[in-house]
Amino acid sequence: MATHCVDRELLNDWHIVADQESLSADMLFPTRLLGVDLVVRKRVNKAEVVRADNGAVVNSAERYGFIWACLDKPWREIVYIPEANEADRHLVSGGSIAVKVSGLRAVENFLDMGHFPFVHTGWLGEEPHTEVAPYNVEITAQDEVLATECKFYQPVASPTAKEGFVVDYIYKVIRPYTVALYKSNPIQKHRLDVITLFVQPVDEENCIAHPYLCYLKEGMEAAAVRSFMQLIFAQDKPILENQVPRRLPLDPRAETPIRADAVSVSYRRWLRDRSVTYGAIPARA
Questions:
Q1: Among 18, 141, 173, 251, which is most exposed with the fewest C-beta within 10 angstroms?
Q2: 19 lies in a domain?
Q3: How would residue 229 be classed by pLDDT, with cut points 50, 70 and 90?
Q4: Do 22 and 130 belong to one domain?
Q5: What are the strands, taking DSSP E only, across the chain?
Q6: How far is CA 253 from the centre of its chain?
Q7: Which pLDDT belongs to residue 118?
């Protein structure tokens, strides 16, 4: 199994390497990114990230309550989340959850509505409401995978939900290891709560999921947002860790998709088009 990443798309991008809540002054926080061992040190004014193998200082930044690192020269800015600037939202970390699977698998699972009634029974889905209605998928002008008109009946869609309702979803894959979900708010029906899942590729078969939650405050406590996310992800974790193979197959013939998998099919094709192989089983020529 390859341990070092050669994908420029990943090496020249920003990735979360620590939640600021997990750091204390002058404590050394060991972590790993794309097979490279790193150490994060919190200084008075900022955090510093260095490689454990040669002590080289790595490009780093602080945003959304996380420490970010880029192993090479950044090609672009850290992902921009406009909702993080809206004063009437809770901005909450969902914690850092280690998962023994490729980060690409974690992104794909996040995109999968079909598992709601079976993995998140009584919360995000229930029988007999198991069918995934047709939805639209496109690649946007910003080169992101966008799935719209996604609808699914959910008994408890969020901590403020008082009854089940058909929830509107929009999914957006922003970077290979970053995906956002926009879903109906039960109180302000014209606005959307936002969950962005930043996945830290530890190596090809291990990742750390960093959910970032931008939920409307009305009728909602920040602690409830965080605990709801952790409840849902705790249900996903064992399913993800039983995926075989752990890496994501990119060959269209490797796994048979159904209509409900349209966004997953587009995601895999999008990865192939970007020559992303780290955490994947590349398609055969």
A1: 141
A2: yes
A3: confident
A4: no
A5: 15-19, 28-33, 36-42, 47-51, 57-63, 66-70, 89-93, 97-99, 136-139, 145-154, 165-175, 178-184, 192-203, 206-216, 248-249, 280-281
A6: 25
A7: 43
Residue predicted with more confidence, 235 or 255: 235
Tell which of 17, 45, 70 closes a domain.
70
pLDDT-derived band at 27 (thresholds 50, 70, 90) equals confident
In this structure, what CATH number is given to the domain that contains residue 46?
2.20.25.680
Class of residue 34 by CB neighbours under 10 A (exposed 0-12, middle 13-18, buried 19+): buried
Same domain, yes or no: 121 and 213: yes
What single DSSP character describes residue 125?
B
Most confident of 62-71, 217-226, 255-264: 62-71
Q: What is the CATH number of the domain that holds 152?
A: 3.90.380.10
Q: How far is CA 216 from CA 151, 152, 277, in A?
A: 20, 20, 37
Looking at the domain assignment, is residue 90 inside a domain? yes
Instruction: Report d(CA 5, CA 279) in Å as an integer.
Output: 9
Contact, 75 vs 143, CB < 8 A?
no
The pLDDT value given to residue 155: 62
User: Considering the entire predicted model, what is its pTM?
Assistant: 0.90
Tell me the residue range of the domain where 12 lies: 8-70
Is pLDDT at 128 greater than 70 in this prediction? no
HSE (CB half, 13 Å, CA atoms) of 86? 16
3-state secondary structure of 205: coil
* One domain, residues 61 and 119: no
Q: What is the pLDDT of residues 30-62, one digit of tens each?
A: 999 999 999 999 887 789 999 999 999 999 999
**Structural domain count, the chain:** 2
Of the candidates 97, 63, 94, the residue with the CA atom closest to the CA atom of residue 80: 63
Span 244-273, mean pLDDT? 80
Residue 202, in any domain of the structure = yes
In a domain, residue 76? The reply is no
CB 78 within 8 A of CB 14: yes
